[in-house]
Amino acid sequence: KWAGNSNSSSSTRSSSAEMYIISKYIERPLLIGGKKFDLRMYVLVTSYSPLKVFLYNEGFARFCNTKYSTDVSDIGNRFVHLTNVSIQKNGRRLQ
Q1: Buried (b) or exposed (e) across 34-57, using 16+ Cβ within 10 A?
Q2: pTM listed for this prediction
Q3: Do 64 and 31 form a contact (C-beta atoms < 8 A)?
Q4: Which residues are CB-contacts of 79 (< 8 A; sequence separation ≥ 6)?
Q5: pLDDT average, residue stretch 55-63
Q6: How crowded is the C-beta side of 46, counted as CA atoms within 13 Å?
């Protein structure tokens, strides 16, 4: 039984429903300075046939404040694994 299944109505959902995240975690991510990062690039596709794509010259990178670790004790540490700015702004400043 999946929590949040679209086939069940909100009135039948249990308040103790388990939460699931469905994704594939990259076990050995590319790191910069020992930290996870992601790149944000802006692309405009104006046609698929023929393919016409415009890439904006500027983008940005987001970094974790804490060095990446595969230690089991760090598995729940959002500051190690998530580059989201709204999370990182609350973490320790750069390590």
Answers
A1: ebbeeeeeeeeeeeeeeeeeeeee
A2: 0.58
A3: no
A4: 64, 65, 66, 87, 88, 91, 92
A5: 93
A6: 4
Asked if residues 31 and 68 have their Cβ atoms less than 8 Å apart, the reply is yes
Amino acid at residue number 23: S
Dihedral sign of CA atoms 6, 8, 14, 16 in order: negative
Instruction: List, in sequence order, every residue forming a beta bridge with 78; answer none if it has no partner.
Output: none
Report how far residue 4's alpha carbon sits from residue 10's, in angstroms, rounded to the nearest whole number. 9
Parallel/antiparallel/unpaired status of strands 51-63 and 37-48: antiparallel
CA 10 → CA 6, 7, 86, 89, distances in Å?
9, 10, 29, 34
Provide the residue type at 90 as one letter: N
Question: Among residues 52, 81, 48, which one has the least CA distance to residue 65?
Answer: 81
Rounded CA gap, 3 and 58, in Å?
Answer: 40
Q: What percent of the chain has pLDDT over 90?
A: 38
The amino acid sitting at 71 is: D
